[in-house]
Design goal:
The structure is a single chain. The strands form 3 sheets. Strands 6-5-11-12-13-10-14 form a 7-stranded mixed sheet, with helices on both faces. It has a 5-stranded parallel sheet with strand order 8-2-1-9-15, covered by helices on one side. The protein is globular and about 60 Å long. It folds into 3 domains: 176 residues, FAD/NAD(P)-binding domain, CATH 3.50.50; 80 residues, D-Amino Acid Oxidase, Chain A, domain 2 (2-Layer Sandwich), CATH 3.30.9.10; 74 residues, no CATH class. The chain contains 10 helices and 15 strands. A hairpin with a 2-residue loop joins strand 12 and strand 13. It has 370 residues and is of the alpha/beta class. Bound molecules: flavin-adenine dinucleotide. Flavin-adenine dinucleotide binds next to helix 1, strand 2, strand 3, strand 10 and strand 14.
Length: 370
């Protein structure tokens, strides 16, 4: 195994969590690093947004893992131990967890926000940044350019709202086909949005319906136009490397939770793993496959079941959540049980075209397999 060539500069494309985690890890090992970011600052795409760093399915706490990556960073995190879940009937169920099932945090370049704090750590370690510069993925060492394939779409409003802190989700295909509506609140900052995996073209309608539902249910003030639109790209990678040896990390590499579309934690983890593979010379694919331990396959089966069963699956999930520790349930969902292992080759054999397949939108899950 040949480790990093200390006589040259390693180039990372993208200054989101994946690219910054890679750059920090490389710089700490004394490797010369340059990050090229097409926007004007780190995490610009999500500036001002509130998102959740998941604390499952890994047994290790996400905050401890983050502190190991960047102990100098002071990211403000709001631990979540209670989730309010609404099924299609509208009835609310509260699921709690002993340990946080996630941490809300701010995105973007601001103080205390994830991307800004990681940028400042990387900068202090000597990483060079070229903002406003689009990199060619074929010419860099680590590709961390974020979502590329559209599997789902999200629309959300965020801003200030006088509400108690909380994490609330609404599952109903009539308002969010194949996805969910959500309201996240931390310290007077709120996000109200919808993510759908079907009927993308009508996302404005799903956003409007979701907003109306939350306004009615929680007597919220009216909401202006959406603040952020985004793609949700889900697929199961078979490799994280290209023929040249370029390493794909974060969402561009398919490292995003195939069930809910959460990608921050996997972005941080795979950014670090790719850097470690550069430093040690160990094969990147071997590292992520060993560490992520079949969770992609498990998430794919979850999504297949979720999308094909629909409302009864949502009801089952909610009733399980009502009786379980929410963090443990999240972890359990990613465990590769025997029944899931049996389904994996079947689903992979059926899928794989990359564009939805002959069954149209009802078979959107086919796009998850690569
Ligand atoms: C509306 C919405 C809400 C979400 N909420 C959550 C959540 O609550 N929790 C969660 O875990 N995940 C959430 N996600 C997903 C999460 O945002 C992503 O998975 C995560 O940001 C992926 O990190 P990344 O570093 O791979 O990519 P990104 O954060 O997308 O960063 C990629 C960076 O690369 C830059 N770039 C792109 N192309 C080039 C190029 N050619 N050259 C140079 N730079 C380039 C981009 O400008 C960007 O700064 C959400 C996504 C959306 C759309």
């Amino acid at each position: 195994m040949r480790g990093a060539d200390m006589g040259r500069t390693y180039i990372v494309a993208g200054a989101g969590p994946a690219g910054l985690a890679a750059a920090i890890t490389l710089a700490r090992a004394g490797v010369d690093v340059e990050v090229r970011e097409r926007s004007v600052s780190a995490g610009a795409r999500y500036d001002g947004n509130l998102q959740m760093l998941t604390n499952y399915p890994d047994s290790r706490d996400a905050r401890d893992e983050f502190d190991e990556l960047a102990p100098e960073a002071s990211v403000r995190m709001w631990p979540q131990t209670s989730a309010t879940l609404h099924g299609p009937s509208g009835k609310a169920v509260v699921s709690r967890s002993r340990e946080p099932f996630g941490y809300l945090l701010g995105r973007g370049s601001g103080e205390g926000c994830l991307d800004g704090e990681l940028f400042r750590v990387a900068d202090s370690l000597g990483v060079r940044f070229r903002f406003g510069e689009r990199a060619d993925p074929d010419e860099v060492d680590i590709i961390a350019t974020g979502g590329r394939d559209v599997y789902g779409v999200a629309r959300e409003w965020f801003g200030e709202m006088d509400l108690p802190d909380g994490f609330t989700v609404h599952f109903d295909n009539r308002d969010a086909p194949g996805g969910y509506g959500y309201l996240l609140v931390a310290d007077g900052r709120a996000v109200l949005g919808v993510a759908v995996t079907r009927k993308h073209q009508q996302v404005e309608e799903w956003f409007r319906r979701t907003v109306q539902w939350f306004i009615r249910r929680y007597e919220l003030p009216s909401i202006e136009a959406p603040s952020l639109s985004g793609r949700v790209s889900l697929f199961v990678p078979s490799t994280g490397m290209d023929a040249r040896g370029g390493r794909y990390v974060g969402e561009v590499g398919g490292f995003c939770d195939g069930f809910f579309g959460f990608g921050i934690r996997l972005a941080l983890q795979t950014g670090r793993m790719a850097a470690e593979s550069v430093i040690s010379g160990e094969d990147y694919d071997a590292i992520w496959k060993r560490n992520l331990d079949g969770r992609h396959d498990s998430a794919m089966i979850n999504r297949v079941l979720y999308e094909s069963i629909g409302h009864p699956a949502y009801r089952l999930f909610i009733s399980l959540a009502a009786r379980s520790d929410f963090r443990r349930l999240g972890t359990l969902l990613y465990r590769p049980f025997l029944a899931k292992r049996v389904l994996v080759p079947v689903v992979k054999a059926l899928g794989g075209t990359g564009d939805g397949g002959p069954h149209g939108e009802r078979c959107a899950w086919r796009r998850i397999v690569r």
